[in-house]
Amino acid sequence: MVRAEIQSLFLATQDAPGDYEGRAKAEAGPTKTVVANGTGAGAADLLFHDERSIAGSGNEDLDLQALTDSFGQAFNAAEVAVLRVEAASTNAGAIELTPGASNGWTAILSGTAPKISIPPGCSM
Question: How far is it, in rounded angstroms, from Cα 1 to Cα 50?
Fold first, then answer.
């Protein structure tokens, strides 16, 4: 059985430069999304979680049809409901998400040169 709760909060401020006075402020949230157990809209029936270390300038291909879950069982994802990728603040460079050359996942990566870059200390 899978149940997930995703919470997010966005707070940002910017002080006026130089002789200008004031502050710009943006807020959104908190928001909460609950992913129920199942296979329909807003639901999930599988969970994959992993922490990986990749050598500098290295790469790793994850095949969503050939993973092993936390219980040692084959993990064959038909679709992705939630994706979170976090780059450690100690990383020397950004993590780059790109679809694999063979049967690459293109749900959020499309176009002629699809790529999402996640700088050190950031997540998506």
Answer: 18
Query: What is the Cβ-side half-sphere exposure of residue 5, based on CA atoms within 13 angstroms?
Result: 4
- Predicted TM-score of the model (pTM): 0.69
Could you give the CA distance from residue 87 to residue 122 in angstroms, rounded to a whole number? Answer: 6
Cβ-contact 27, 14 below 8 angstroms: no
- Same domain for 38 and 54, yes or no, is no
Which are the contacts of 39, defined by CB distance < 8 A and separation ≥ 6?
45
Taking CA 83 as the corner, what is the angle to CA 5 and CA 30, rounded to the nearest 5 degrees? Answer: 40
User: Could you tell me if 73 and 93 lie in one domain?
Assistant: yes
- Residue 84, pLDDT above cutoff 80: yes
Are 7 and 64 contained in the same domain? Answer: no
Q: What is the pLDDT of residue 42?
A: 82
Structural domain including 38 reads: 1-13+23-45
